[in-house]
Design the sequence.
């Protein structure tokens, strides 16, 4: 293996992360933001988003790709928060209440999602994406019509004036940053939400432990090769469904953590881009559809959000309009996902060609490459 | 006891524990609005304090004058109030409970000091302030153009 080949392979395998680092390095000086401000933003955003991104890991281990259906869990968390605000349950108790109410809903929708994805093997990502739209319709129906009409809503502050349905924007003042401020450590000019980071650390430990359990090993076996796993006696469909259920429940909890930090909730849109930004973050962190790890999550959150923080100011300074930076934000998110998926597909094709070359020799490889096209 | 029965018992216990956990966070986390009223009771039968310091649940004391009414938010049902008359120097300490299903209650300071129960009563506003209309413009995200203004910035 030559040195040139190694560099090329390194660049191709880390194209997304390298692209992001280059853009960030160029954009930071033009944003003219202070280092303290950027570091504080990164601390806040790590606490706010990491849990959601971690929810994507298990389905990747199980070979189900990026779980775009995690917005199902986000919707479950939002239902929990709506009920917590309705019954005026505040502080940490309010968050716990939302989690306790949202979790069973997340388990049910996660199981439905897992069962459907088992019927769409090989096309899990697009199926979960479409499924999220379908469940979104049910969520909208429940929140817009059932709440206040069938489910009693006590608080007139969250109810539409027509008497049923929840208002467009929900003020989460009663639970706002209750997890973050439970223990806020001040280190120099920085404030660190210790409890939030402890929760995230616990989830990381859980994932590390889970990977070593029988179920975790089964998941990896299923992710590696379903046929072999089935032959080895592993209940493939059940294992895949469990990975989606756990991911959905984690997304439910992650959305609650995210929204308590934000302090308000766009009732009908907040979950729309939950999976989109989480997927973008993990891909930017160097993960792929088949492979992801804990460092990918944190590198991705930092890199993606670093660009989110600096791009509006960089856009303002470069082009005289902060809106260009805002659109750049969207472009970056979609671009990261697209670039990563294209690179993954291209790598998979190259790998298939290489395998055929090994099997049939060089001529067979060329022939196989032609077939692949 | 066979395995099936054991499993059923364990699952039932878990469900009960889960429901109990919801009940506990509901009871301990429930917020109530408390109106603190320092007005005379029954047309002067019990006079209002001229100057009084009030502290609830060990919070910082707040000073009230005659005919004052203030509002605070409390979490949970059982609370302790300390009333200190700044004119006479007398100090009264009492415990009061707010019913779980009440969102807004009123506490009469003169009644608390005299020990006449009930000093906490349900408060029903005469007329609810009308809420601003927004149901005509619900953006459900369906079939609508993406608007940067409507985005929740992650």
Sequence:
């Amino acid at each position: 293996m030559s040195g040139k080949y190694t560099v090329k392979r390194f660049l191709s395998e880390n194209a997304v992360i390298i692209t992001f680092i280059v853009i960030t390095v160029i954009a930071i000086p033009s944003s003219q933001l202070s280092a303290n401000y950027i570091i504080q933003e990164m601390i806040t955003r790590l606490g706010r988003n990491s849990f959601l991104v971690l929810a994507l890991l298990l389905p990747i281990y199980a070979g189900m790709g990026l779980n775009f259906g995690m917005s199902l869990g986000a919707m479950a968390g939002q239902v929990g928060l709506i009920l917590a605000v309705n019954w005026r349950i505040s502080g940490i108790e309010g968050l716990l209440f939302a989690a306790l109410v949202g979790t069973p809903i997340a388990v049910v929708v996660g199981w439905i999602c897992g069962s459907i994805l088992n019927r769409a093997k090989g096309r899990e990502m697009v199926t979960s994406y479409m499924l999220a739209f379908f469940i979104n319709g049910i969520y909208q129906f429940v929140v817009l019509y059932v709440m206040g009409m069938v489910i009693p809503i006590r608080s007139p502050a969250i109810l539409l004036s027509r008497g049923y349905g929840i208002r467009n924007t929900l003020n989460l003042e009663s639970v706002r940053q209750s997890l973050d401020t439970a223990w806020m450590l001040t280190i120099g000019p920085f404030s660190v939400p210790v409890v939030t980071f402890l929760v995230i650390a616990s989830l990381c430990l859980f994932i590390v432990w889970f990977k070593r359990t029988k179920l975790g090993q089964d998941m990896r076996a299923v992710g590696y090769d379903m046929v072999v796993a089935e032959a080895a006696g592993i209940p493939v469909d059940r294992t895949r469904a469990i990975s989606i259920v756990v991911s959905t429940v984690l997304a439910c909890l992650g959305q609650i953590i995210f929204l308590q930090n934000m302090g308000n909730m766009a009732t009908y849109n907040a979950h729309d881009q939950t999976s989109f930004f989480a997927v973008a973050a993990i891909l930017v962190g160097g993960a792929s559809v088949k492979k992801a790890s804990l460092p990918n999550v944190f590198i991705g959150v930092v890199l993606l959000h670093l660009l989110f923080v600096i791009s509006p100011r960089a856009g303002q300074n470069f082009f005289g309009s902060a809106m260009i930076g805002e659109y750049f934000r969207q472009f970056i998110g979609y671009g990261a996902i697209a670039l990563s998926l294209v690179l993954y597909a291209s790598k998979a094709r190259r790998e298939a060609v290489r395998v055929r070359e090994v099997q049939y020799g060089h001529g067979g490889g060329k022939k196989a490459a032609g077939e692949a096209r | 006891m066979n395995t099936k029965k054991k499993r059923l018992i364990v699952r039932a216990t878990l469900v009960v524990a889960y429901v109990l956990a919801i009940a506990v966070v509901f009871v301990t986390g429930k917020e109530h609005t408390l109106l603190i009223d320092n007005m005379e009771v029954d047309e002067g039968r019990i006079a209002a304090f001229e100057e009084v310091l009030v502290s609830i649940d060990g919070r910082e004391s707040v000073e009230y004058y005659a005919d004052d009414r203030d509002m605070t938010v409390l979490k949970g049902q059982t609370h302790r109030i300390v009333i200190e008359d700044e004119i006479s120097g007398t100090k009264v300490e009492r415990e009061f409970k707010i019913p779980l299903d009440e969102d807004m209650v009123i506490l009469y300071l003169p009644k608390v000091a005299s020990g006449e129960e009930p000093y906490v009563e349900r408060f029903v506003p005469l007329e609810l302030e009308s809420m601003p209309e927004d149901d005509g413009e619900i953006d459900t995200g369906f079939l609508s153009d993406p608007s940067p203004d409507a985005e929740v910035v992650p």
Observations:
- Chain A has 14 helices and four strands.
- Strands of chain A lie at 169-171, 184-187, 190-193, 264-266.
- Chain A touches chain B at residues 45, 48-49, 87-94, 96-97, 100-101, 136-137, 140, 144, 154, 156-157, 160-162, 165, 167-168, 174, 258, 262, 266, 268-270, 272-273, 277, 305, 308, 323, 326-327 (CB under 8 Å).
- The radius of gyration of chain A is 22 Å.
